[in-house]
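Predict fold of Protein cereblon homolog; 190 aa.
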Amino acid sequence: MRCERRLQLERLTMQFITFLLLVYSAAYQTVEPCATVGQEGGTSTDTLILCRACGQELAFGRDMNFIPSRLALSSRNDTSVGGRRVNVQLFENPHGHRFEVITFRKADVALHWPADKHFSWFPGFSWTVATCPRCAAHLGWAFQPSTWPDTITKTKFEESEHTFLALITHRLLREDFASSLLMTPKSFVS
Ligand SMILES: [Zn+2]
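Predicted 3D structure, encoded as tokens:
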């Protein structure tokens, strides 16, 4: 009986070790593609920027346009969202919530007029909330000259060179990064 129990214990230990090996190798394979993407960084302006919540296509890398604000708490370069180096600014709202944003010339987002002139992060500009047109997630804010009427048409906003958007960095996703997560692991390819 004792001998049988020891054998059983040994078998269990072996099963546990095999399980651990499988888990570790699987984890290593998952991490690898991400690291490769991070190192390459990419310079393509064709990189699609997606809504992190639902995958909706929002903009291209080339739509990013750095608009510095003296009200930003800090400003830094980042390559994880845009592919190329983009400037990320940190802002704080009146409730003490902080947001890291990237400014875009344009993006396919839903805007919610009327615009508000108060507490604007960009002096001289009024803001409206910008949400995802598919899943309605809050993605950031749109800015228009504060001399404009509070409510304007979408066409006027899109056609003007004086309007821009500030989208929250961690609510966005790069398409090539998303694809790398969905890639079939090499071990499953026959
Ligand atoms: Zn979405």
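The CA atoms of residues 144 and 163 lie 5 Å apart.
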